[in-house]
Amino acid sequence: MGAVSSGPLQRESEGDTSTSGADTDADGDPGSDFGTESGAGSVAASGVRGGTASRTGDGAATGSRGGASSGIGSDGPFSRAVLELDGVEKSYDGTGVIRDLSLSIREGELLTLLGPSGCGKTTTLRLIAGLERPDDGVVRLDGEPVSGPAFVAPEDRDVGVVFQEFALFPHLTARENVAFGIQEWDEADRERRVDELLELVGLADHGEKAPAELSGGQQQRVALARSLAPEPRLLLLDEPFSNLDVDLRVEMREEVRSILKEAGVTAVSVTHDQEEAMSISDRVAVVHDGRIEQIGTPEEVFQQPTSRFVAGFLGHASFVSGHVTADCVETGVGCVPLERVHGLTDDYRGSDIDLMVRPDDVRARGVAPEDANGEVIHRRYLGPTVLYRVEIDTGDVVGCMHNHADQVALDDPVHVSLDADHALAWFPSGEQTIPDGGR
């Protein structure tokens, strides 16, 4: 069955979009429509069907750089790789957009590609969908190559796509939109499938409504149900929450994750929103300059980043300089016991390192000048919390997050101390990443 006409996977809206001789997006690659019919925007609405209806579980994903595999290993209960990218590269007008990218996504996993605008994450999604061809490397689905020496058309890949603009057919009801991609099914099976999906997404009583009669969140759920209808073996979500207001965005994250897990779908999402990636994902792959910088659980990449880029991109990160002794790391905020530093080996004894601290790892309390080890140089009121920037006596500047009721004035002398209940990440002084064997 042919694919539904659709618009392109939307790319990042910021960054340098100029290349010679082609209209380009922020990833640096020329736009590519998958069909042209107005109003259709989901590859998954037709032609991408088959597979099993129930896939559950958690799995491992591996990247080409920064960080080991994370999750259930090859002997785990959900170890079958649904999607593999092996050494994939893509360039436009001689500019590399994807560089030697390797990735494995296991059955039942929800993995998010997270990165800034222009990093290549949406191009990666397009390569998976078959909307772009890689210059080198192989894309495999269920172990079978679909891009590389052989190329399988998007409509034959059994891959569903949910676009950020939803792209529902305005002249069809919610029920008809959901059923659009399974028209060749037996009528009874088709109606049963639509009923199941409308129930799954909480719209059983809204099936006869047109898209214009639905809220933004309801439209998104219809788009999701439409993509799930053909039972794709892999679902791709391109910035799925970007068109929703802030409050609805948070609500829909939880709903979409719950729906995908209940359906047992293996899914890859793309976003530049760190909170979104952390809240919906089993694994997060941080993409930077066309490469996977680090991959792991949300907790791993946030608490134990393997590069300073990952540390800073995932949230406010400060670095406290220190010297490794036999017993601790001597810093401007005290002597930190070695057991509170993640994976610090004996090889670094006597070396200078930088400890990474998040704002909630540090406390600053007002004291008399003679007891101070720092001074407040910036204060930002955030409603429930206040973010302080404190310059400590060593010259390091750290961020401290306090309850809004705490009152520490600008320029006040303070005593800064560590208040972390987890092992701290670290980097060799002056280095951007952890060398192999450093953990």
Brief characterization of the structure:
With 439 residues, the chain is an alpha+beta fold. It contains 8 helices and 20 strands. Mean pLDDT is 83; it is low at 1-8 and 10-77.
Q: What do these coordinates show?
A:
The chain has helices at 121-129, 174-179, 187-200, 216-228, 246-263, 274-280, 298-303, 308-313, and strands at residues 81-92, 95-106, 110-114, 136-141, 144-147, 159-162, 234-238, 267-271, 283-288, 291-296, 318-324, 328-331, 334-337, 352-357, 362-366, 374-381, 385-392, 397-403, 413-418, 426-428. The protein contains 8 helices and 20 strands. Helix 3 crosses helix 4 (216-228) and helix 4 packs parallel to helix 5 (246-263). The model is unreliable at 1-8 and 10-77 (pLDDT under 50). The termini are far apart. By secondary structure, it is of the alpha+beta class. Strand 4 (136-141) and strand 5 form a beta hairpin. Strands 6-7-8-3-9-10 form a 6-stranded mixed beta sheet, sandwiched between helices. It is 18% helix and 28% strand.
What gross morphology would you assign?
Answer: globular
Helix content: 10-25%
Average of pLDDT: 83
Q: Number of DSSP helices?
A: 8
Radius of gyration: 24 Å
Residue stretches low in confidence (pLDDT < 50, at least 5 long) are 1-8, 10-77
Compressed to H and E, one letter per element, the order equals EEEHEEEHHHEHEHEEHHEEEEEEEEEE
How many E-type strands? 20
Q: Find the structural class using helix and strand composition.
A: alpha+beta
Task: Let me know the largest β-sheet.
Answer: 6 strands, mixed
